[in-house]
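Title: Request for sanity check on DUF6630 domain-containing protein prediction

Description:
We are preparing a figure and want to confirm that the structure record we downloaded matches what your pipeline produces today. Could someone re-run it with the sequence below and paste the raw structure tokens into this thread? We only need the token string, no images.
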Amino acid sequence: MSAPDREFDPDDNFENSREDEAHLPDDGDEASVEALVWQLLLAINPGDEEAALRQFDGYRDAVAAADADEDEDEDDSEPMARLRDVIDWRSGFHVAADDTATFIDAVNELAARWNLAIDWGVEDAGDDEFLADTDVPALMATAYDRLREYGYTLWTWDAGPDAHAGWITLSRDDDAVRVLAPALGIDVRLGSDAF
């Protein structure tokens, strides 16, 4: 496994992204897109470069498979479409719009990477009555607030009207995510403001 061949230091986490926008991809510049994907994977796997490398390899495999598939849907060519399965339940979540139980399970799983437990405001977050009386955006706002207390940010990206998706980063990387995601064509928001 290896990081993309690029002039970026993989540990800079886009600290200089606002001063130098020459790194943003031009149409068809696959190396630039890969460099941005690598930086995003580093951001959503804080402190775990090995996981980022495994996911980056998965992304490259998805790109290679798509390049071999002449019938590929245009929407499937976007970086997030290729990343979604690679990061799901590892460093990201993608759940049905009304699936509160799976959302809680996914975010709990992601937060556990840093030995964090989300306080959902009830004794049993799996209680059927609690799950029926809430929705994913409300739960996302709760998780966002709890994670901020520990220096993390819950993000959501536009997964369409039938799903909610996102990831968790260190709060200090908020500016980097605001540069990386749009550069990759990913519409993101803070988890406190779900799509």
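Thanks, this matches our download. Residues 30-190 form one domain.
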